[in-house]
Amino acid sequence: MSSQPVSRDSRLLDPGFELTLRPMKYPQFYEMYRAAIRNTWTVEEVDFSLDTTDLNKKMSDADRHLIHRLVAFFATGDTIVSNNLVLNLYQHVNSPEARMFLSRQLYEEALHVQFYLTLLDTYIPDQNERARAFSAIETIPSIRHKAEFCFKWIDSIQDVHRLETREQRRQFLLNLICFAACIEGLFFFAAFAYVYYLRSRGLLHGLASGTNWVFRDESGHMAFAFEVVRQVREEEPDLFDDEMRLQVEAMLEDAISCETQFAQDVLSGGVAGLSVADMRQYLEYCADQRLVQLDMPKKYGSRNPFDFMDLQDVQELTNFFERRVSSYQVGVQGEVTFDASF
Based on the number of CB atoms within 10 Å of its own CB, is 193 exposed (0-12), middle (13-18) or buried (19 or more)? Predict the structure, then answer.
């Protein structure tokens, strides 16, 4: 990346290293950064004390298989997101305001990794079983398939150090859209659905409590990425054509296929109240929401099959950064629930 400063007349993806925060060219990114700061939480606030009793005494073997697969995915999922952020995103979004947000996002991804690490230590006390969870991308085919999808898109711009050409900018945008719409917006939202399904049965409230915070963070990450796309689309509309739309649709379909394979594994024991067909329908529903956020037409027309996710979806579609400041408190005590006033 060039170390030379560039003019404030430059576009968001122009190569360089813009340093000037005043006058602020992209204040929306700064406001997103400030909103993220107000949403500060810590892993130590999450109480897992009742979760182990649920795992050992209230859940079936099929339920425990679901949880073990879920935490195995969590073990490396946000680390992959962090690597892409550092290697492929930070250097190319040429706005100091945006880089402030990306710095905050990197902190939040590390916080999620800590949360999932604590989750594994709590749920899987056996050291050998825990080691297998951390090696899941090599040993569990359904998780390896998702990891390969992620790595394919990381590698797609790994050697692009400056966005000099139209094709390089399109490659960058596809990577950004992939991580926002597919990995954060499909893979993790499917994981949230499993968590909230268990919560609807009165199980694993510690996991659900921490997931509430992660859900807020991930909603912010997606909103930021989609705002970058919107801004680039405004500055360089020629980058967005029918070919780009078809590439995004194909990417989403590939992600849905990966996550459906994971659902077949997760639900292989027969979890009452959840089916692979319902999970695929939910993924199609989420994919349509991502297309709308990208100002593209819906493809699937699927409805949300999960009543227990209705409130979460309403809140996601609310403008994440226009909620009352009182919704975000540093060091909030007690469980954070989605039926609180936002």
Answer: buried
Tokens describing residue 103? 């710095």
Residues 6+ apart with CB under 8 A from 103: none
| Residue 42 covered by a domain | no
**Total structural domains in the chain?**
1
The neighbour count for residue 250, using CB atoms within 10 Å, is: 10
Mean pLDDT of the chain: 88
- Report the candidate in 282, 166, 285, 298 with the shortest Cα–Cα distance to residue 245: 298
Q: How far apart are CA 8 and CA 240, in angstroms?
A: 23
Residue in the structure block whose two tokens are 């000037």: 20
Q: pTM of the predicted model, to two decimals?
A: 0.87
Active site residue 116: yes
Please pick, among 116, 282, 300, 328, the residue that the annotation labels catalytic: 116
Give the confidence band of 310 by pLDDT, cuts at 50, 70, 90.
Answer: confident
Tell me, yes or no, whether 159 lies in a domain: yes
Q: What is the pLDDT of residue 129?
A: 87
Q: Which domain holds residue 172?
A: 61-320
Residue 108 lies in a domain: yes
In a domain, 338, yes or no: no
- When pLDDT is averaged across residues 155-171 and rounded to a whole number, the result is 93
Peptide bond into 23 cis (omega under 30): yes
